[in-house]
Amino acid sequence: MSTGRFISFEGIDGAGKTTHIDAVEQAWRAAGHEVVRTREPGGTALAESLRELVLHQPMDALTEALLVFAARRDHVQQVIAPALARGAWVLCDRFTDATFAYQGAGRGFDLQVLAQLEGWVQQGLQPELTLLFDLPPAVAAARLRDARQPDRFESLDEAFFERVRGGYLARQAADPQRFALVQADAAPQAVAAQVRAALQSRGLA
């Protein structure tokens, strides 16, 4: 049985997750917890290699989904499950909700197929808390403009990200107990306060 804690941070590119993941990691370490900070796709050598393919090589939605779940399987087996078993607190920048949002809602891929892959790969494993950083895609795009060279996803149009946002909100509506919705277009201090409140409500701060 897992004795650790597992939370994920979700949201479209430009939502500002990284700053708040940094703050949570620092707070948890200061409290004396073993913290495993990781990301998806990625988190292992194999998964990082698959991430590069997904972000930079052309492929159809099924290939994309299979690669993401292959990366996730290795990540869960090699990093997340062992960390939880030894009592570590795991911070993950994106997890399966991103697949339903990007490949499902964004690409229009079959959600039932994604759900079947989710069951096979995770065998019931989910974060106990998912912080969903929600903001309009136009705001996210303005934040990202000139920040870095866009990958295959970041270069897609605003309509794609509207669908992704809708996919995230659909996941949140289907499992509201797991999610905390963060209004990410608020002032940074207000966003940080929302994050702290969500963590405190679950005994994670």
TrEMBL record:
InterPro entries: P-loop_NTPase (IPR027417), Thymidylate_kin-like_dom (IPR039430), Thymidylate_kinase (IPR018094). ATP binds at G11, I12, D13, G14, A15, G16, K17, T18. The keyword Kinase applies. Keywords: ATP-binding, Kinase, Nucleotide biosynthesis, Nucleotide-binding, Transferase. Signal peptide: none annotated. Pfam families: Thymidylate_kin. It comes from the Bacteria. It catalyses: dTMP + ATP = dTDP + ADP. Belongs to the thymidylate kinase family. This is Thymidylate kinase. It comes from Aquabacterium commune. The gene is tmk.
